[in-house]
Specification:
9 strands, alpha/beta, 315 residues, 10 helices, TIGR01212 family radical SAM protein, YhcC-like, TIM Barrel, globular
């Protein structure tokens, strides 16, 4: 009986046999040590909140702009120090990436952006920076700044495409479309800037075929990284009122099954930054199990092994 092709392992260190190309593996191989991401709230807002494009934010977004676990005292150095103190016991030799997470982190005058990003990079333990933003908030002067930073440090820019389907984008009040994403990716990649693309799985009205179409499109843009995020219904979002009983996935097993089939379709060179989603338990409505990130991750690894499959196997 033919056992089939040997599985591809992306990381076999420490007794692991990882069948997906994770960001932790990539950073460990790149820097030779543990690298930890520190979430920051830089005090920015969003064109979907201040009336430039809309009010209230994207329909699924929490009041904190999807940065419920980010530090935002107004003093970036102090916020970094506070998080590093909490983590240094577990990882005494780690390096850190300053992750500007909350709201739209390129939606400000370029000199304000420069000051905040520079403040983070001046911390002696910070080895790089990650910047989350909307694809329609990258004017030429901001691209120039990102290019400058990219030549000085390790950088990636996160773009929330979420879905390629215009009907879903309209329902979710995104106020941008897939062409904005495609344009942003082209302009960033032309400068050699790493792009990490976000997709939300289980958005209201989307079929499995629609989710796979979004995945295929994003993979064709050849991002450095990809985040798969189940839809979380959270308190403080517009959807708490409009879809109070909506549940994106009925069970962890249903979600893991979808993610494993998606992983098989993702090119192996794309780095997976996330395959689940974070929501503070005090704000989470549904799925009630989605905060169990470790359970989802372990279940995914187990399912991949049981199927003898791996990232990119179906390509």
């Amino acid at each position: 009986m033919n056992p089939g092709p040997a599985p591809h392992f992306f990381d076999e260190s420490d007794g692991q046999k990882l069948r997906i190309h994770t960001i932790s593996t990539y950073l460990k191989q790149t820097f030779g040590r543990k690298i930890v991401k520190l979430s920051l709230d830089g005090g920015f807002t969003c064109p979907n909140r201040d009336g430039t494009k809309a009010f209230g934010g994207c329909a699924f977004c929490s009041a904190s702009g999807s940065g419920d676990m980010a530090s935002g005292s107004g003093d970036i150095r102090a916020d970094l120090d506070r998080q590093i103190r909490l983590l240094s016991g577990k990882w005494p030799d780690a390096g850190y990436i300053a992750y500007f997470q909350s709201h739209t982190n390129t939606y400000a005058p370029v000199e304000e952006l420069r000051a905040k990003f520079t403040a983070a990079l001046q911390h002696p333990d910070v080895i790089g920076i990650a910047i989350a933003t909307r694809p329609d908030c990258l004017p030429p002067d901001v691209i120039d700044l990102l290019d400058e930073l990219n030549q000085q440090t390790f950088l990636w820019v996160e773009l929330g495409v979420q879905t390629i389907h215009p009907e879903t984008s309209a329902d979710m009040n995104l106020c941008y479309c897939v062409s904005d994403y495609d344009d942003a990716v082209c302009r960033l990649q032309a400068r050699g800037i790493r792009v990490v693309s976000h997709l939300i799985l289980g958005l209201p009205g989307e079929t499995e075929d629609m989710m796979f179409q979004s995945l295929e499109h994003v993979c064709q843009t050849k991002p450095f990284g990809l985040k798969l995020h189940m839809f979380n219904l959270v308190r403080g979002s517009q959807m708490e009122k409009t879809h109070p009983n909506y549940v994106s996935f009925e069970s962890i097993d249903d979600y893991i099954d979808l993610v494993v089939r998606m992983i098989e379709q993702i090119p192996p060179e794309i780095v997976l930054h996330r395959i689940s989603g974070d929501a503070v338990r005090s704000t989470l409505i549904a799925p009630e199990w989605s905060y169990k990130k470790r359970t989802i991750l372990n279940g995914t690894h187990k399912k991949l092994a049981e199927k003898n499959t791996w990232q990119g196997k179906a390509l």
